[in-house]
What does this fold into?
Amino acid sequence: MSTPTRSAPFQGRSLSEVVNELTEEVRELYTADEVPWVIGYSGGKDSTAVLQLVWLALKGLPVEQRTKPVHVISTDTLVENPVVAAWVSQSLETMREAAKAQELPIEPHRLTPKVEDTFWVNLIGRGYPAPRPKFRWCTERMKIRPSNSFIRRVVRRHGEAILVLGIRKAESQARARAMAKHEKGRVRDRLSPNGNLPNSLVYSPVEEWTNDEVWLFLMQQPNPWGHKNKDLLTMYQGASTDSECPLVVDDTTPSCGDSRFGCWTCTLVDQDKSMNAMIANDGQKKWMRPLLTLRNELDDVSKEEGTRDFRRMNGRVQLFNDRVIRGPYTQEARAAWLKKLLDAQAHVRKKAPANMRNIELITMEELHEIRRLWVFDKHEVEDLLPGIYEQATGEAFPGLPLDEQLVIRADEIELLREICEGDDIHFTMVRDLLAVERQYRTKARRKGLFESLEGAIEKGFYENAEDALEFARRKGVIQKNETVTEAEDGEPQTLPLDEMTNDASA
It folds into this structure.
């Protein structure tokens, strides 16, 4: 019985020969012009290998030739796997100190999404449902925008930028095809155009390497900024797959969902294999179990009917295959998600290792933004967030009272709820109308007032979800009849809104 054979690394060439050749290539490209470099660094094996090559190449240059900056950017979505996030943050700090000591023009940058673009502000604050393949709202906001904004700033300042990425053809057939396509448009040796970022070129020095070759390099070549690559290998061994979360600069880049190191909240895949494996393989990582539980609850579509509004974000009811398309999470569901998140954070802070005790699953800046969205954008003047925070943490919420800015006080809210006799839709409509009135009261010009009032009334028009479904069905029949009439005699006919609503509620 024959045994499978494996090809020799680097096609039989020695590691030192390959490294010497690549570092010389890096030096030639670096000194060829004044265009600054931007290295995408995720903390995984591929981006670490690329950064090591560049670091070694620059150390081989005389100090006077190390003239242009090399920016190392790492995008933290704020919901990264906590173990990996801590590794990357520590690595960036170590890198900063080592670069200064070694007189290298390497500048690390930790990028984060704007507060209005973060995962929890959109899910808990605005009520966006957990991301799905057909509604992947997270990647653009949390990864693409921060990295692209940084790159565009470099381009505006210098006219051009060269992106140095750890992409490899061996990662997938799709990646190999995409890289081959860009190779045809190369303007210089090894520099490919970037179709999504004008005036930027892509350099991928390890594009031909295999997984084994990457690890061979990392294990035999000491990390030049002082981080131990064996610790990186240990982190990889703690999970089940063999990939990493790449620098995402466009929506064609694979999501972190299928990768080894991604967001712990990711619902774009069936399960978080990496966190599952970390918890199963290492008893010291069991403190992450509440995160995994919360992620799985977010992924449970069977509970969406009870947690998501029957109306879309704009208050309208839409059907698909004669079923209501669910909208954002309800106020009750959003409050519950926040409580579970803060409870998980409290648990982690008690059970995690000492170096993780100050972990923030949600930042205070995000909490303030969520509170603002609830109270002023959604008119939820009950101002529930401070109470939820105090209940979960045992501490008072560090935010100023909003009593003077609210249209109705907390004790009056309960009175209004009693008057509405349990009719939540009626209660919400009256509360929204009062909030709209307060919003426009002090304005010199009240343009948009009637539209806002009409929107609040339309959103609260229905008696319940069943009534909304019946209304949408009747409206669909009316629209079909209008289409038929228009096709037969060319004279379009429409029903006034009041006539349509009376018909639907009859």
Notes: Strands lie at 37-40, 70-75, 106-111, 161-164, 191-193, 200-203, 319-320, 323-324. The mean pLDDT is 82. The first strand starts at residue 37 and ends at 40. The two ends are 80 Å apart (CA to CA).
